[in-house]
Amino acid sequence: MQAPATPTIPAEARRWRIGLLGYGEVGRILAEDLRAQGIAVSAYDRQLHHPRTQAQAQTLRVHAYAQGVELVDSAPALAAGCDCLISAVTASQTQAAIEAAAPGLRPGAWVLDLNSASPGTKQAAAAIAHAQGARYVEAAVMNSVPPQRIRTPMLLGGPGAAELAALLAPLGFACRAVSAQLGVASATKMCRSVLIKGLEALCIESLSAARHFGVEDAVLASLQDTFPGVDWQAQASYFFQRVIAHGQRRSEEMAESARTVAEAGLATGMAQAASHAQGWLAQQAAAGVFGAPDAPGFARSDDWRTEADRLLAALEQPPHSTPNPTP
C-alpha cells in the first residue's frame, strides 16, 4: 500500500511566525513539532522572569536554544511579532494571558486559545482579542497531548474556526471546526472533563484507601468484572502518573469545568470536589511526597501501588499488613 502523501504546507503558513504564550509541557511539544517543519516559533513564559522559578526558567531556556525557538521578554512583544498566537497556559490564566498579550496583538492576527476553560471564560477572552482586531478561535484539546503531540484531536470554535483549521491542518494539527459560535467547543471539552478528571480523582481516592485496608486486589477484580473492557491496573497507574505530575493544572481545569456546569444552571458539587482532590494531590507532590518533582523518574511508577504507598506513608497511614481477602 502506498503511503499517504505528506500535506503541502501553504506558502502563507510557511511564512508565519507562531508565538507560544506559555512554554510548559504543551508549548514545548508544539515547538518541537513545528520547528521540525521549519516553522518560525517564538515563545514567552512568565516563569522566565520570576525570581522564584529560575530553575524552571533555565530548563525552558535550554530547550528553546536546542529547538531554535526565540524567547521574548513580554507577552505584548510576543504578540506583536507573530501571525498566530497560541495560548497554552494554565486554565486559571486563560483570560489574564490574553489581557497581557492584548497590547501587542495586530489586526488580522490569529489567536488560538488551547486552554481548558468554560464557554464564558473563552467568550470573555475573545472579546479582548477582538477589540484589538485579532481573530480569536477557541480550541478544545480532546485528549492528553504527550502521546499524540501535535496530532492530538482538537475542536475549534468561533467565526474564523473553519479558516484557521484549514491553515493548521497541513502543519500536522488534527483540528476540526465544530461551530462558528464561541463556546460550543469549550463546552464539549469541559463537560467531558467533569467525567474524565473526576474519574481520575475517584480512582486515586478509592484505590489509595483500598491499599490502606489491604483490599485493593478485591476492588480491582470487582471493577474488572463490572467493566471488562478496561485494564484497571494499567489505567490506575496512568491516572496516578498524570495527576501527580500535573495535579495543579488539572485542578484549575476542574474549577473551569465547575464554572461551565454553573453556567448551565446546575449544581457544581462533583466538579468542585474533583478540583479540590486534584489540587490536594498537587500539594502533596510539591511537598516532595512522591520524590523530587524535577527528577527524571518523577511520577513514572509502573505500579500505582508505589505512589499510593508513598502517599499513605506521608499521611502516616501505612498499607494494611494483612493479606488481601479473597473476592
Automatic annotation (TrEMBL):
The keyword Calcium does not apply. Residues 210-277 form the Phosphogluconate dehydrogenase NAD-binding putative C-terminal domain. Gene3D superfamilies: N-(1-d-carboxylethyl)-l-norvaline Dehydrogenase, domain 2, NAD(P)-binding Rossmann-like Domain. Keywords: Oxidoreductase. One of its GO terms (molecular function) is NAD+ binding. Residues 17-158 form the 6-phosphogluconate dehydrogenase NADP-binding domain. GO terms for biological process: tyrosine biosynthetic process. The active site is at 189. This is NAD(P)-dependent oxidoreductase. The lineage of its organism: Bacteria, Pseudomonadati, Pseudomonadota, Betaproteobacteria, Burkholderiales.
